């Protein structure tokens, strides 16, 4: 394979300003016609209404609009004119379209994604196609076509908008003139590509309620790593395997200009490789099977830049200035570790030598993965504001939220809890100051794990910190607690956290903590044999064996697609480090443990129907329910384990129902495993029966090969 054989071939891409096609309108009486098509990528910053394609008379060079996006962001195909008028070449007022015959769809034109547009134009008929589907048709009367009648052969030039703002806000791919009998569906097969950020891959990023990412940066001793993946995809959302490099850079979110270097002349965005830091612009990441992974740090603080928000820009260095070869992260606020207590507590813990390290824990990604589970409510019921739960027969749907919205749920409780325990916290703080050093007694110097007023070795302060903490804090707390507390103390702690947080899902994550950590440690030591990394292919059998043991299911093995998801969760390629293993284990163990319950194990083992297809992503589920020919019938659903929920997130190992709603929109609902386990044997009805009895769930969908 040549060096550039898999590179993006840009010769078929162009800006709208460079678009030009010559067509021949052949007429025999009134039967003249022609057809053309192209892929279009229209930015949301484009002005509306606006002309996309003009018809230009080859003889007079006068022009009139042919294809327009109106002020409602709907694309409009206009008829040919035998006397083009330069004054109407660019539509700036949609009222000018009133009274003109035209073909137009009923829906808005998609923005910032590749869309295939096909047009068939004749003296008596206009046809408009979107992604190979006929969406608009207009038959013209003889009076409407009289102006455009002519005899013989007439040459017409199709050209892009002469509005500079529109011309630079729109890109085209593979424009071509077609036979009037050509199939528009067939023309959609050769798809363009675009770059996108995979938000579900984010690790060690805290997302605020306003959608802004909070990332700890600054000096070398303070800043922390975070990870993101970008994917090169075709128009249908499938990854495209091209051997190209992607570069990451830090820009201002408001104007797109590069962020300046620090006062120490350090690059604002750094890439981490083998423990060393490099200017991210000097260390591009190469796509592998359509995906490039970045491990980054930010050295510049927002407070040093007038409190402006940043943004990470990913682009193809040799991709010119095409917007579809650029991708942008959410707005970022880069803060120092002392900016607030919560962030500080995440950073000050050092990486433990054993299992479940703070910096490498997959559980840290759960603060980010909100896009996986939107907040919209189930139509039939209103969720209770405390439990965020909607009843599903004798089971329930959970309203997805960040950490089950535990910070909001316990706000009033926390104030009371804090006041009543402030004296105890002060006393413990004083004892801690007088206690031996960590080298003498690690646990003796930590007030979180010593309750002075009871026989329970887990303190009220630890309970308080767990309820209000983020996932990385909870990970460290559980690791320390389970190393010395008894099983009874851990169970009591789980019940207390569930009570004070208002989220019962925390209970199961705390209860499995001891086994998860101990079994994970033994498993890694067995497969690594004191090596820094292991070959993924060499340990895949052992991973499957552990999964089947924990799930108590030996009738169904993991598929190739399942292992690919595990590899993505781990964030590794051919070799897996301990950090990669911990990410994978913290996701896989809760899933396997949930499947060990009979109510789910039977569904997992079922071959016909296949209730749970395997490990799939949100995007794969959506692609299967949408399909190449449009959305499936309302009520079609797929069950999946969310890839953005890892231990100790309260929803780790839970099931999500992705389904087509009554209006053909896609919905994601979290199914409460607590109620599955508690009620599965009591109500006499299996979960499949309950699911199919729901008004919005009527038919089990399948994962298509194309979506995988």
From TrEMBL:
Name recorded for this polypeptide: SH2 domain-containing protein
Stored SUPFAM superfamilies: Concanavalin A-like lectins/glucanases (SSF49899), SH2 domain (SSF55550)
Report any one BP term from Gene Ontology.
signal transduction
Q: Does the keyword Disulfide bond apply?
A: no
* Gene3D superfamilies, alphabetized: 2.60.120.200, SH2 domain
Q: What is the lineage of its organism?
A: Eukaryota, Viridiplantae, Streptophyta, Embryophyta, Tracheophyta
Report the Pfam families cross-referenced here: Laminin_G_3
Q: Which domain of life is it from?
A: Eukaryota
Task: Cite a single GO MF annotation.
Answer: DNA-binding transcription factor activity
